[in-house]
Amino acid sequence: MSQDIGTIINKGFGTWMRNLNISLPFILNFGISGLLALIIFAVFVVIFVMPELSSMGLDPANILPEQMLSILSSVVGDHIMLIIAVFIIFMILIMFIQSYFIAGAIGMSKIATETGDTYLNDMLSYGNRNVVNLFLINILLVLIMLAGIVFIVPGILSMENFNMFLSNPEETAASSVLFAFGFLTWMLYILVASIVLSIVKYVLVVDDLDPITALETGFRFFMDNKLDIFLMWLILISISVFVGIIGQGISSVPIISTIWAFADIVISIAVIPPLTAIWWTRLYLSRTGKNMYDVNDLLDHPY
Q: Which of these, 150, 137, 232, lies nearest to 189 by C-alpha position?
């Protein structure tokens, strides 16, 4: 049975309250990704920075920030290609890890929306089944967003000297305007594409599709439900903006701002992402006529 956006938001919130474990994939993703980043940074320091400090006879405990910045700049300059390669590998690995947990979260959202309850096994099952396809479609979506770089090509080509443009854009006014217009057009392209393709990941996991089929199905779904998708996107953006406004409003109060800093992390990791997954999943299930649980079947905790 098709539901309006208000019902989807209300019932989706109830589903999350009944299944707080849907936050677990996002917490694990944050924790594992952060740990991996720390390990890579530690290896970088041990392999490149520590030998440099030793050769200069500097004590790491007493080094000044200016000295450390100079050393880091020197190390990065000397090993720039290796650092870029490691960074690319790191980003690919992070994307793969994220794909596993996001697939698991969407799967949990699907099961919770269909039956009322979901468990950790659902995360493992959907993560294992969809991680490769979700990883591939994430790469495809990045390439689609990067395709908009063509909008800034005319502006770049019109510049005789790009370094002069960076140092003194007033001297190349026409090129500056063309470049700025192209850049704004690219940003608009990314915004529109992100809205049009916002449901694609959920389509892939919910229906167990391959990346190309999910892309086609997600686009058709958008064309049939433009207003609902735009409203859902607008609601999610509004929530994020509202949370940011609260943080800015209380930043002048030290004690409260410290508490809010922790609360903001919790909200950003364990509240907004699972609600987002549940709402998008419910929207797709609702508009495609798939089964969703009835509150009358869950008398012990009706939502």
A: 150
- CB under 8 Å to 271, separation ≥6 — which residues? 23
Q: Average per-residue pLDDT in the chain?
A: 87
pLDDT value at 303 more than 80: no
Nearest to 19 by CA among 127, 129, 121, 113: 113
At 162 the pLDDT is: 55
Is a pLDDT exceeding 90 seen at residue 194?
A: yes
Which residue, chain included where needed, has tokens 């905790």? 301
- Which among 111, 98, 105, 110 has a CA at the least distance from the CA of 124? 105
Residues 6 or more apart in contact with residue 279 via CB below 8 angstroms:
8, 9, 12, 232, 235, 236
- Residue spans of the domains in the chain: they are 5-290
3-state DSSP call for residue 289?
Answer: coil
Half-sphere exposure of 55 (CA within 13 A, CB side): 8
Where residue 168 falls among pLDDT bands split at 50, 70, 90?
low
**Do the beta carbons of residue 265 and residue 190 sit within 8 Å?**
no
CB-based contact 47:120 (threshold 8 Å): no
Closest CA to 206 of 93, 95, 97, 102: 102
pTM above the 0.85 mark? yes
HSE value, Cβ hemisphere, 13 Å, CA-based, for 8:
25
- pLDDT tens column, 80-129: 888 888 889 999 999 999 999 999 999 999 999 999 999 999 999 999 99
